[in-house]
Amino acid sequence: MIALPNECYYQIFNHLRCRDDYYRDLFSCILVNRHWCRVFIPLLWSEPEQHLKDIRLIRTSLLTLNTEEQALLIPFKNILPNGPKPLFEYTSYITSINNYLYDGIGNWILNEKYRIKCELKNAIKCSLVAMFLRTSKNLKYLCIDEVICNRIIFENFCENTMLLL
């Protein structure tokens, strides 16, 4: 079997972007074999757009937090999901984060049935924004709906010079 260069895969699947089932098609491709998985995970995670509302994406992102980012959530006791670290550093592929992230955080809080809503939502926002700034080396666009700045976010923001606000 002759393998195609990765550039060929990118060209083929960039043509699928106009399809309504684009994300479903990419997800199916990552299940074909390991090579396809390594090729298509970056495409699948590069522009999550409306998928930021999905509680599974929020859960996966929370599993990616480092110790310093997790520390912001300590006052809320046991809110971090249990599970192994993700196989890939999915968030490193993200290029834009829009307001849907905040909807996704709200959906996750409702799904987990937490009582503390506003304070918890803000703490999760701070943790996730700090993590995205730390891990997303290709991040070009970040929408922050309110001032949620702290030392961790500021330090990571200063290191990510490619970002447009």
Order of helices and strands: HHHHHEHHEH
Mean pLDDT: 79
- Give the helix/strand class: mainly alpha
Whole-number total of structural domains? 2
Helix content: 40-55%
* Radius of gyration from the alpha-carbon trace, in angstroms: 17 Å
Tally of extended strands?
A: 2
- N→C terminal distance: 46 Å
Q: How many helix segments? A: 8
- Spatial shape: elongated
Q: Extract low-pLDDT stretches.
A: none
**What portion of the residues fall into strands of 2 or more residues?**
under 5%
Which strand order does the major sheet show?
Answer: 1-2
Taking the sheet with the most strands, its summary is: 2 strands, parallel
Structural write-up:
- This protein is mainly α.
- It has two domains: 1-46; 49-159, no CATH class.
- The chain has eight helices and two strands.
- The protein has helices spanning 6-14, 22-30, 34-46, 55-62, 67-71, 100-112, 118-135, 151-159; strands at 96-97, 141-142.
- The protein has a two-stranded parallel ribbon.
- α4 (55-62) packs across α6 (100-112), α6 crosses α7 and α7 packs parallel to α8 (151-159).
- It starts with 5 loop residues before the first helix and ends in a 6-residue tail after the last helix.
- Pfam families: F-box-like (PF12937).
- GO terms for molecular function: ATP binding.
- This is ATP-binding cassette, subfamily B MDR/TAP, member 1.
- Keywords: ATP-binding, Nucleotide-binding.
- It comes from Gigaspora margarita.
